[in-house]
Amino acid sequence: MSVANLLSHIKSAVNTHLPGKVRVVGEISNLSDRNHWFFSLKDGEAVIRCVMFASAARVVGFKARDGVEVVATGRVDVYPAQGSVQFYVDKLEPVGQGALELRLRELINELKGEGYFDPEHKQPLPTMPTRIAVVTSRSAAALQDVIDTSARRWAGCELVLVDVRVQGDNAAPQIADAINRLSGHGERLGIDAIILTRGGGSIEDLWAFNERVVADAVWDCTLPIVAAIGHETDVTVAELVADHRCATPTQAAMTLVPDREMLDRQVTQSADRLMLALKRRAQHERQRLASSERHPAMSRPDRLVTQARQSLDGLTQRLNRALPAITAAYQPKLDTLAKALPQAIGRRMAREVEALDALARELDAVGPASVLGRGYTYTLDPNGELLRSAETASVAGQLTTVFTDGRVDSTVQDSTPGQGEPIPKPPPRRRRRKPPPGPGLFD
Amino acid sequence: MAKATTDKELSFEKAIDRLEDIVEKIESGEVGLEQALSQYEQGQALIKRCRGILDQAERRIAELTQDAEGQPTITTTDEDSA
To answer: Please, which residues 252-311 of chain A have a Cβ atom closer than 8 Å to chain B?
Structure first.
């Protein structure tokens, strides 16, 4: 067979056994990366020449250099004219990176499913924090960015550094511990929020911020967390769980630290409004006072009196008109009473007179005139005093006896006490009877 | 406004809120004139307090450390040592 034939066989054999894409692990060497990339991929035992077109090379996400171990994805082809095998690479990754990216995607899905990224769980950021904790490495440029930005915004906002490792094996537990400590003691220490930050790096460098222990710490944290990890295009789990994500540490500080100038303007505005409000108020009161002074009540008080008098007259007239109506209503009643009154008085008088007559008759019955008329006498001593007993009479000597038709003077000759007439009991005095109940005066 | 904190201790935000309150009361004519004057004075005190808070120019950087009992505490550091 000819050489061409031979190469044709080789080519079809390759196309048959390695038809589609292959992924090859090897070390880069002889890299020429001016436009299209030309390099060799080798391991201890073999080497293959590679081509990567500029369009594919542009997307390579790391610094490809001689000696770097990579995973190359592409097609193998045979080039008969040169008798060579060529590996056309369309994707290049450093060894291990692919695995990590896969793992990260898995982690993100897992945590998303568990609700770690739920917007409802995210806390609002404080509007005016006065003390902010910064979790980062003491030597990081990120820290300095935060400090400088904060100073420009408002120097009065205090920053509390919590120094942690931000990459390597120990980093994740340290970061988680720092966040947990702040969560537990933050309120007591007066910390209002946390900035979690570090500078750019590879996916391995940033891996600590993808660990579950950090995700849990961020989720459980009682203080709001603003996370700014790596570059803008880097996504880490911590940033997704955090309450707010910023592209850079500077932006994180801008987001949290209050803007002194804006607040100053707010205070000035309020101060102006306060003064204006008072001025207006004073003016208002002044006007009220002035119009009161102008009011007729103050300037022509006599008018008030006239007005009052007029009101009074009006009321009097109304009263006078109203009076007959009122009296008219009571007229019938008055008439009845007017008639009834003399009648009642007349009846009363009659009763009194009757009682009086009765009394007079009684009096006559017991009075001395009628007694004398029945033949009785009474005797007086020389002093004109009434003598009731024979004993006192005998001592008197001279007596005057009163008869119904005159008096007789006599001298005592002899007295015989104990032979008189005892006084009969007087008839019981008749109590004045109450007049019988009749119609009342005002019935 | 929950607890009655004296105006001297109010945080910036609370002070601004109280200030807004006073301005509204005076503007609306809700309060009598004498009261308006006394509230105006209170307002001026609040403004002074707010400005005082904002004017703190000292850059304050501290660090989270541990106290004698191992409890987290804050230690102020100098600018240079940060």
So the answer is: 260, 263-264, 266-267, 270-271, 273-274, 277-278, 280-282, 284-285
Beta carbons of A159 and B51 less than 8 Å apart: no
Strands A225-229 and A158-163: unpaired
**Amino acid identity at A121:** H
Whether A226 and A242 have beta carbons less than 8 Å apart is answered as yes
The residues in B 53-82 lying below 8 A from A, measured between CB atoms, are: 53-64, 71-74, 77, 82
Q: pLDDT digits over A388-403, tens only?
A: 888 777 777 888 888 8
**Residue A78 to residue A6: CA distance in whole angstroms:** 12
Cα torsion through A66, A67, A69, A72, rounded to 10: 30
Contact by Cβ (8 Å): A199, A141: yes
Interface contact flag, A151 B73, Cβ < 8 Å: no
| Beta-carbon separation of B36 and A281 below 8 A | yes
Contact assignment for A147 to B82 by CB distance below 8 Å? yes
Burial A390-421 (b: 16+ CB within 10 A, else e): eeebbebeebbebeeeeeeeeeeeeeeeeeee
Taking the alpha carbons of A56, A58, A61, A64 in that order, is the dihedral positive or negative?
A: positive
Closest residue of B to A164, CA-based? B64
Taking CA atoms, what residue in A is nearest to B16?
A: A267
Q: Which helix (H) or strand (E) element contains residue A147?
A: helix A141-153
Nearest one of B25, B54, B50, B56 to B38, comparing CA atoms? B25
Give percent above pLDDT 70 in chain A. Answer: 93
Token pair for A150: 């904060």
- Decide: helix, strand or coil at residue A235: coil
Residues on chain B touching A155 (C-beta within 8 angstroms)? 56-60
User: Confidence band (pLDDT; 50, 70, 90) for A19?
Assistant: confident
**Interatomic CA distance for residues A187 and A185, integer angstroms:** 6
Say whether residue B35 is in contact with chain A using an 8 A CB cutoff. Answer: no
pLDDT at A380: 85
Q: pLDDT tens digit string along A212-254?
A: 999 999 999 999 999 999 988 889 999 999 999 999 999 999 9
CA distance B15 to B20: 9
C-alpha span between B65 and A138 (Å, rounded): 13
> A158 to chain B, minimum CA–CA distance in Å?
5
Question: Which residue reads 């004698």 in tokens?
Answer: B68
C-alpha to C-alpha distance for A181 and A220, rounded to whole angstroms? 11
Nearest CA in chain B to A137: B82
- Considering only CA atoms, which of B6, B47, B24 is closest in space to residue A278? B24
